[in-house]
Amino acid sequence: MNVTLLAIAGGMIILGLGSYAGYLLLQVKKQTELQKQHQALAIEKRNATIYDNVNTLCLAGIQGQCDLPEISIRVCIIMDNVQGDERVDFDSEYPALSELYHIVKDMARGDGRQELTKKERMQQNLTRHKAETRLNDAVIEDLKRLQEKVKPLNNQINRSEEHTSELQSPD
Predict the structure, then answer these.
(1) How far is CA 142 from the centre of its chain?
(2) d(CA 72, CA 97)
(3) What are phi and psi for residue 33, nearest 5 degrees?
(4) Are 57 and 71 in contact (CB under 8 A)?
């Protein structure tokens, strides 16, 4: 009888611990799903900021408010930070913008440009000017297509943020 009571007590302890372990596993699963949702929302918000910046840069390039080589550098570097399914392969989708970027990306800018000799600066100016002249119309077309691509994505994410804030706001 003593052994039976010990076996029943042991079984109840094991059952209780098993139930508690199952409960903890369920909580971990819920927490993992919640973390994935928060991470996805953070990526969407970051991408929305990137799209907004790219939209502004595209507009500046299309309107001629900024040099196209500078626009190509900024747009390519910023869009390289897009995460998730919206990543863009610039070499295939925007070839003129990508080509101009690859030509000017290693050229000196700012203070580094001042450290170059006059001959080196003139050589870089000539290379940059030739590329900009040759690719001008194609880069503007690429900027227009890119702007059209990021506008709907930015609007979609903004709507998603509004929906999420509606769900989270206690009324």
Answers:
(1) 19
(2) 6
(3) -65, -40
(4) yes
CA distance 164 to 158: 10
Q: How many residues does the chain have?
A: 171
The tens digit of pLDDT for each residue in 111-168 reads 888 888 888 888 988 898 888 889 889 999 999 999 888 876 655 555 555 555 554 5
Question: Are 137 and 49 within 8 A, CB to CB?
Answer: no
Give the pTM.
0.70
Looking at residue 80, the DSSP 8-state letter turns out to be: T
Per-residue CA distances from 33 to 26, 36, 39, 102 (Å) = 11, 5, 10, 41
Q: CA gyration radius for the chain?
A: 28
Q: In whole angstroms, what is the distance from residue 16 CA to residue 74 CA?
A: 60
